[in-house]
Specification:
The protein contains 3 helices and 9 strands; from the N terminus they run βααββββββββα. The protein is of the alpha+beta class. The radius of gyration is 23 Å and the shape is elongated.
Length: about 180
């Protein structure tokens, strides 16, 4: 009887700001430019009105920028979206162990060997209050994890201050990691 278990790998993603900026330019730039040229031609027909063109750049850039950035934020923040994101790390949980690898596949740590720690933490989410989360401590730093549906604060723990983003994970992965937490 074969007792090997297939290890599932879960990828944590981080936003690539350069890709996001280029996506914003790609989304709003051409449309703003075309509408501004049309506005400049309309105001100065049969010639071209440069003042109207510059005014159109600001006006259409602002309007399309608002809606374009809002569209991109929703697209990037959608559950499971990898748009404009780079892999941060791969988690491979099993029943009694967890290993973490960086995007290139190099081992960052393993719970069983003591090079990776999973810790219950409470984090302050602005005005929303205190919420429970997990912190993965590995050789290159720490990563904070939370389920999509926030959970209440862990009793008896103080709030941690952190300056990184929280990575949201699916409930089954969070539950598996929570069972390994100290």
């Amino acid at each position: 009887m074969d007792s090997t278990h297939e290890r599932q790998s879960h990828t944590l993603w981080q936003l690539n700001y350069a890709s996001f900026f280029l996506a914003v330019l790609k989304t709003i730039g051409p449309l703003t430019l075309v509408c501004s040229v049309g506005f400049g031609l309309l105001q100065g027909w049969p010639g071209f009105n440069v003042t109207a063109f510059v005014t159109g750049l600001f006006l259409f850039g602002f309007l399309f920028g608002l809606f374009g950035i809002l569209f991109l934020v929703f697209k990037v923040d959608a559950r499971g979206s990898t748009y404009c994101k780079d892999p941060l790390m791969h988690l491979e949980p099993s029943e009694h162990d967890l290993s973490a690898r960086d995007a290139a596949g190099a081992l960052l740590g393993r719970v069983s060997s003591g090079t990776l720690r999973v810790v219950h933490v409470n984090v302050m989410q602005g005005k929303r209050g205190l919420m429970g989360a997990l912190r993965l401590d590995h050789a290159k730093g720490s990563v904070w994890l939370s389920p999509y549906q926030w959970i209440g604060a862990w009793p008896g723990l103080r709030s941690e201050s952190f300056h990184e983003s929280i990575h949201y994970v699916e409930d089954p992965l969070f539950d598996a990691l929570s069972r390994l937490a100290e």
